[in-house]
Amino acid sequence: MKNFYELAQSRQSCRSFKDKAVDGELLVRCVKAASLAPSACNSQPWKFVVVTNGDKKRELSKLTQEIGLNKWTESAPAFIVVVEEAEPILMPRVVEHYGTKRFSEGDVGMATAFLLLEATEQGLGCCIIGTYSDAEVKALFGLPAGDTVRAIVAVGYPADETPRPKSRKDVSEITTLVG
């Protein structure tokens, strides 16, 4: 088992997968990890659609390619659709002062990060996809009109497990110390 820093360092976007199905239990374990993420007022404003079925998987892959990107999704063994619920349940005072949507995007983002890190821990590769029609994805899976599809995560076993170097800003460029 890796420590957290090693796990974060080894996570990378994978766009080339082995032709090998992912066990449903591993996918559920990734969703379970996502469900442990923090959320405002413990609202847990997320849902996850795990897609392994051939027809639905093919249709979803096509939806990620609508602007000519992501041809590689055709080879993804599975997808997890990350959905933000329309009306998270928050404390009334919070809703009164800040509304219901202020925190949800960040909460769903944290849940997605937990999902990715668990997938990495299980030896799976993932790539977050953001190019799709929200309405078409919701229609494909019968999701409520008020919900928002925040991400589609392609999941599978990486064809190449060699870690790539990360290109990140230096911590001094992104940190302000106040004290």
TrEMBL record:
| Keywords for the protein's UniProt record, in alphabetical order | Oxidoreductase
Question: Know the name of this protein?
Answer: Nitroreductase family protein
* Organism listed in the record: Cloacibacillus evryensis
Record family assignment: Belongs to the nitroreductase family.
Domain named Nitroreductase: residues: 9-157
Q: Name one GO molecular function term.
A: oxidoreductase activity
Instruction: Cite the InterPro entries for this sequence.
Output: Nitroreductase, Nitroreductase-like
Top-level lineage group = Bacteria
